[in-house]
Amino acid sequence: MVVERVQALSIAGLKELPAQFIRPDHERPENSKAVEGVSVQVVSLSQPRHSVVNEIAAAAAEWGFFLVTDHGIPPSLIRRLQEVGRVFFELPQEEKETYANDPSCGRLEGYGTKMTKNHEEKVEWIDYFYHVMSPPSKVNHQYWPKIPTTYREVTEEYNKEVLRVTDKVLEVLSEGLGLEGKALKRSLGGEEMELEMKINMYPPCPQPQLALGVEPHTDMSALTILVPNDVPGLQLWKDNHWVAADYLRNALFIHIGDQIEVLSNGKYKSVLHRSLVNKDSTRMSWAVFCVPPNEAIIGPLSELVDEKNPPKFSTKTYAEYRYRKLNKLPQ
Ligand SMILES: O=C(O)CCC(=O)C(=O)O
């Protein structure tokens, strides 16, 4: 099946956006601008533990989103990660197509562009590359980019670092719920917890005021740890407004996803977010989704449920949750 890539459309020099990218009136960025003067919380991981726990727990409860600094991932590694992703997307189109995924037959890993399920649905102004990064037993290196040749080495190094930060954030979030540090990670499958890399590529768009890079959604992951390039675009839904998450060099943009919302019985919020696109610049972001294995059973943790706090969510396997979310069925 031939898929029309957004980057190829952009390079062809379109002056007007094709109809399938034009959002309905109420969704257009020109009609739903971000509120001014509100900024997201930035948490330094080098503070004393109790401050980190208090600040992260408050941000996760109020926003479902926060930035972390002083996380220990070397800035040079973040730059190399961004470089190998950028080089991949600069390859000739035919070369990128050799990595094309095929969601219709269940092959999700590789180079992709989101397709509509019917002709009414609008599409997003984005191409992406998606693959599993860990644990080793779930990794298929044959789907990873082979060019640049340093892609694997850099991504494996980043995987180690991001896993260390994920473990720390999960510990802090557990303590913020009054639980012992390992509680959330254990519920997410322990060492079987998976990290998935999605490189998002939003090329220049002729009419960015009418389009979206990704439409409003919450992540079905437990956590998403994202580093963007310096082109702004990510927005979060808070108190009935969109709020722009401004770029902060070397910070990690941490989203609470649906699985942590469920495990915490709603104490932590899964953040609704979207991304905008830009007329002249390419926006890119590197999202690492931290997800439980398919067979993990996820529901409100028993320690957080009692007569006064009945469960707000049903309990099911992650595979069942994902099937329902992808098919827009009630949970
Ligand atoms: O690019 C971004 O900032 C957001 C990406 C995103 O929400 C996603 O990949 O699910």
UniProtKB/TrEMBL annotation:
The keyword Transit peptide does not apply. Coiled coil: none annotated. Pfam families: 2OG-FeII_Oxy (PF03171), DIOX_N (PF14226). The keyword Iron applies. Its cofactor is L-ascorbate. Keywords: Dioxygenase, Flavonoid biosynthesis, Iron, Metal-binding, Oxidoreductase, Vitamin C. GO terms for molecular function: dioxygenase activity; L-ascorbic acid binding; metal ion binding. One of its GO terms (biological process) is flavonoid biosynthetic process. This is Fe2OG dioxygenase domain-containing protein. It comes from Ficus carica.
